[in-house]
Amino acid sequence: MDTNQPFDLWIAFFLIIMYIVYDALYAIYYMFLEKKKPLSAANTASAMYLIGAIGTITFVHNPWYIASIAIGSFLGTFLAVKYLPNKIK
């Protein structure tokens, strides 16, 4: 396994977007848990783990991608708390 792959800005941008989605899904996941919606919560958790696995595989090859993941996580949490509705029907 090559752990010294070059840093690619497109991959970094993709990771930021993925982790914005990840953190929004995280907030939605807890809303589904609170509402006792098992199928919706399970689907959301599956999507979260898929995104997390892709992020992990990426930063194992180049640790500089952790910065992109941190930026995406910050933005995702901020946007989810600010703009997601408090209640899911």
Strand content: under 5%
Major sheet attributes: none
Enumerate how many helices there are, as a single number: 3
Percentage of residues assigned to helices: over 70%
Give an account of the 3D structure.
- It contains 3 helices and no strands.
- The chain is an all-alpha fold.
- Helix 1 (9-34) runs parallel beside helix 3.
- The chain has helices at 9-34, 38-61, 65-83.
- The protein has one domain (9-83).
Layout: helices, strands, pairs:
Layout lengths: L8 H26 L3 H24 L3 H19 L6
What's this model, at a glance?
The chain has 89 residues and is mainly α. It has one domain (9-83). It has three helices and no strands.
Descriptive keywords:
single chain, 89 residues, mainly alpha, 78% helix
